[in-house]
Amino acid sequence: MPRHDRASENVLATKDLSLAYGRSPIVEHLDLAVRTGAFTALLGPNGSGKSTCLRALAGLLAPKGGTVLLDGTSISRLSTRQLALRVGFLHQGPPVPEGLTVQDLVRQGRYPHRSLFGVWSTKDESACEEALMLTGTMDLRHRPLESLSGGQRQRAWIAVTLAQETDILLLDEPTTFLDLAHQIELMELVVRLVRRDKTVVAVLHDLNQAARYADHIVLLKAGRLCAAGAPATVLTAPNIHQVFDVAVTVIDDPVTGTPLCLPLSRQV
Questions:
Q1: Burial class (CB in 10 A: 0-12, 13-18, 19+), 193
Q2: Contact indicator for 193, 130 with CB cutoff of 8 Å
Q3: β-bridge partners, 12
Q4: Strand-strand pairing, 224-229 and 216-221
Q5: Mean pLDDT of successive 10-residue segments in the chain (268 residues)?
Q6: Which residues contact 180 (CB under 8 A, 6 or more apart)?
Q7: Residues of the signal sequence (predicted)?
Q8: Which of the ends of the chain has fewer CB neighbours closer than 10 A, N or C?
């Protein structure tokens, strides 16, 4: 399981960040640091601001207050292309373009690397081939997206993000629609990418999955940071009760030694 000593500096950070949709505040005064070369999992109940925060990190939602920093520079000062060369973002449940094949979709991940009239290069082709291989979608490359199962479609969208070849990946609920086997494959893929110096931030719902695979855990509740740090430090019974209003007992996972959260009751 991943535990990286090299990741000490922060590539992405928020400073006093506040986010809202219209007049409805979602995130308030958030100071968050994303460690370089590590897998950070954002956890919290529905409506806690996890996906909203991820959208702000990707530059898709302008802050109401505060700022998002990339290598110490506000992302508001970067062009869309400059940001796309550094940060890849997987939406939650992206729409399916009708008639588009998996291979055509994955090739769209190369757009930030190409000029307006640039020819398709061997480097572009190699990046797409690797993305298809890593996500197990090579045999699906000529299939139209609408013919795929939910899990197959999700892996195709992940391949687009990988073809973009950014050093930072933001994944919004990437295990959605995936069965257990493919969830494990995806988490192991993320670990392999981190070992190749990628920085990954993912919104997850499964506490034990996050504990097993992530290096860094961030707990959010009602748009505020409740705890952040290593899984063993953050995923404690008091923290989980505070954030999720669920009593748990936390033991060592007999396979990995990471925290294993066992729900008890909401009445305790």
A1: middle
A2: no
A3: 34, 70
A4: antiparallel
A5: 50 94 91 94 95 95 95 93 92 79 94 77 93 92 91 89 94 88 89 92 96 97 95 96 94 95 76
A6: none
A7: none
A8: C
